[in-house]
Amino acid sequence: MQLSGQYPPSVALIIAAYNAESFIARAVRSALAEAEVAEVIVVDDASTDGTVKCAQEADDGSGRLRVLVQPQNAGPSAARNRAIRESTAPWIGILDADDFLLPGRTRGLLAYTDKADFIADDLWQAAEDNVNGPLRSMLGETLENPSPVGFKTFVLANVTQKDRSRRELGFIKPIMRRSFLETHNIRYQEPMRLGEDYELYTRALASGARLLLVPAQGYVSVVRANSLSARHSETDLLRLRDCDDALRDIPSLSKDDRAALRQHYLSVDCRLQWRLLINAVKKRDAVAALRTFLRPWPVPLYNMQQLLEQLYLRTIASRRNPPV
Q1: Please, is 290 exposed, middle or buried when counting C-beta atoms within 10 Å of its C-beta (0-12, 13-18, 19+)?
Q2: Closest CA to 206 of 151, 265, 258, 156
Q3: Burial per residue of 210-221, b for 16 or more beta-carbon CB atoms within 10 angstroms, e otherwise
Q4: Three-state DSSP class for 317?
């Protein structure tokens, strides 16, 4: 199959997949449809379904697809690191197995390669049950022109807010300059199964990477209620929280940079301590429950607000459905 485009094939798209048989073919086909993509590397993370077969059947015969299989499930970070090792193209892009690209997305990003080491676009978001229906911009009107993103701005953009669901910049999927990653020995932290993108992008920025955020070029993020990012454990949250401590040790960071990391740390700790409080209440463990309130501010306030919200919701529910 012959493909031609404005730019030579220079991007390796890597896809970590686990039990993705229902959508992996869509992701692979959309990647292979991009003339500027030199390699598509799927790493199956020891799936128990037909992911490997479905990925292989999506091949277009151009010789650009490789499907690798992990000997055991090791998480998305390990799968992506293997794909990076196995690929050779000068630019590396991430495509989640349940997402897909619209035609021209790769070409749109390559137009900015003289300006940055990481080039990311705003994401189009599609509902799982209607992926061909209306698309919604993740960032909306906040991004009208290409915009450089610095360390502090990026970190604070990942502090969870109730009115900014799934809009954190950690969701972006940039193409990354391979030479920068190799020069600074940057790879995904393999123990992390949540926030691994955030950690890598933050570490790269701390190492001097130039990140450019541009308007949407055609990455479609499929919003699923049961996605891996939505099914995180307390251990996942703990590792995401504690990665900020490791990042704060980078010598090049300013006082404001470290303050931003502290704010992100506390944001994640709020979510972690709430989960631990719920578990403690279920187990009737008063000591463990109290311990969740002995965390730095604003964690105790967050727990109290969550408790009051749950009390309010249960009160409303009981009034609507009084006992017979």
Answers
A1: exposed
A2: 151
A3: bbbbbebbbbbb
A4: helix
Residue 9 in tokens = 């094939």
pLDDT digits (tens, 9 = 90+) for 236-283: 999 999 999 999 999 999 999 999 999 999 999 999 999 999 999 999
Distances (CA, A) of 222 to 49, 108, 123, 133: 20, 20, 10, 11
pLDDT in tens, 281-292: 999 999 999 999
The Cα–Cα gap between 173 and 198 comes to 11
> Global pTM?
0.91
What tokens appear for 203 in the block? 């570490």
Domains of the chain by range and CATH?
11-230 (3.90.550.10), 234-319 (no CATH)
Identify the sign of the CA torsion 310, 315, 321, 324: positive
